[in-house]
Structures are given as C-alpha cells and as structure tokens.
Design goal:
The complex is a heterodimer of chains A (111) and B (114). Chain A is mainly beta and 111 residues long. A five-stranded mixed sheet of chain A has the order 1-9-8-3-4, with no helix packed on it. A four-stranded antiparallel sheet of chain A has the order 2-7-6-5, with no helix packed on it. In chain A, a hairpin with a 4-residue loop joins strand 5 and strand 6. With 114 residues, chain B is an all-beta fold. Helix content of chain B is 0%, strand content 48%. Chain B contains no helices and eleven strands. Chain B is globular. Chain B starts with a strand and ends with a strand. The chains are: A mainly beta (111), B mainly beta (114). At the A-B interface, strand 4 of A face strand 4, strand 5, strand 9 and strand 10 of B.
C-alpha cells in the first residue's frame, strides 16, 4: 500500500501557483519524497525529490515540513499543460527500490 | 533512442491467447521495471530487473506472467492464457542504478483482452 495520502482532485487558475499537498506521517529516516506526474495517455514523468531540505528545479519546488510528515509540491505559474495526475511517493534513494504509487491528485488547470 | 520505447502501443487479443510486450530502455540504464496500470488507478509494480536478473518479481500476479531480459537491455513481458482482467496499460521504466533523478517511463502498451 502507498505510504502517502493526497487529495483526489484540485483545481487551479492558469498563471496562478498550484500547491499540491501530501501527507506521509510514517516516513522513515532514509526515505525520500518523490513527485511524479502523469499526463493523459503518457507514462509518469519525474518532477522532483527531496529528503528534508526544500528543493527547487526548473519544473517545481518541493517544501518538506521540519518533521517530514508532510510536503507540498508547488508549480509557481501553472499552465494548461500542467493538467495531470500528480503522485507523491516515499522511497529510499540509491539502489533501485520499486516505487509504490497511490491514486495521486488530479490537478486541473483552468483557463 | 533518447527515451524508453515500448511496443506495440496498443494490443488487442482474445481471451486465452499468449501475448508479448516489449520494452527498450534508455541505453546504459541497468535497472528496468514493469508496472501495470488499470483505469483510475496508479501504476502497480510487477517486476524489477538489475542487469539480466529479476531482482524482485513480487508484483507478478500469478504464474501466467513472466518477464525476461536476456542481454541486460531489452525486456519482454509475457502473459499466457490471457484473461479479461489482464486488460490494462503496461508501463516500462528504466533508471541508472543510482536513482538520483528518478525513473524514466515509456508511454506504455495498452492491452485489451476481449
């Protein structure tokens, strides 16, 4: 079973920030938080990952609470192309651990 | 190629038939994974290869499912005596052994058993 909890759906206006929450209260010390997204009819796409510090890349920012029990993925200026299902996953880094996906959050960006 | 390639993109087969699904990973990626995704669900892990060997096949649902990766690159997922419940999108992903930037997934094969 997935070790994360996400809202099933969210809406966001185009050009505004999209903030997607994730709860992972049972995360272990060696587990990272990964975010993937899946656009319709495509395979999942890696977005970002982190351990305890906030992370930013060209796609998004990841904010992890100090107790590491929850995190938020931020898309700073959402576009229509960001409409997708977003998955939050916890997994050890290194080696090749399998990813356990939940149902994710369906983000709809509206014009 | 630049990405993970899966063929065919769509496959329709009759109940009871045998099917093979192919995955070409990114060159140099030693780890390869198969997942299955049913409508409205997240991907479900099936099997993981490190090189030529199956390091974890705990997700294969039963003995009708089998996968190989004989030369450590291309992998084939084989399903015998297909059932209607096997209908799903079968996803393949590959990664470097050190998964710093995550997996790269293919677009999947949509299998329909009629």
């Amino acid at each position: 079973d997935a070790k994360t909890t996400q809202p099933p759906s969210m809406d966001c206006a185009e050009g505004r920030a999209a903030n997607l929450p994730c709860n992972h209260s049972t995360i272990s010390g060696n587990e990272y938080v990964y975010w993937y997204r899946q656009i319709h009819s495509q395979g999942p796409q890696y977005i970002i990952h982190g351990l305890k510090n906030n992370e930013t890349n060209e796609m998004a920012s990841l904010i992890i609470t100090e107790d590491r029990k929850s995190s938020t993925l931020i898309l700073p200026h959402a576009t229509l192309r960001d409409t997708a299902v977003y998955y939050c996953i916890v997994s050890p880094q290194g080696g090749s651990e399998k990813l356990v996906f939940g149902k994710g959050t369906k983000l709809t960006v509206n014009p | 190629g630049a990405g993970v390639s899966q063929t065919p993109s769509n496959k329709v087969t009759e109940k009871g038939k045998y099917v093979e699904l192919r995955c070409d990973p990114i060159s140099g990626h030693t780890a390869l994974y198969w997942y299955r995704q049913s409508l409205g669900q997240g991907p479900e892990f099936l099997i993981y290869f490190q090189g030529t060997g199956a390091a974890d096949d705990s997700g294969l649902p039963n003995d009708r499912f089998f996968a190989v990766r004989p030369e450590g690159s291309v992998s084939t997922l084989k399903i015998q005596r297909t059932e209607r419940g096997d209908s799903a999108v079968y996803l393949c992903a590959s990664s470097l052994d050190y998964r710093g930037n995550g997996y790269t997934f293919g677009s999947g094969t949509r299998l329909t058993v009629v």
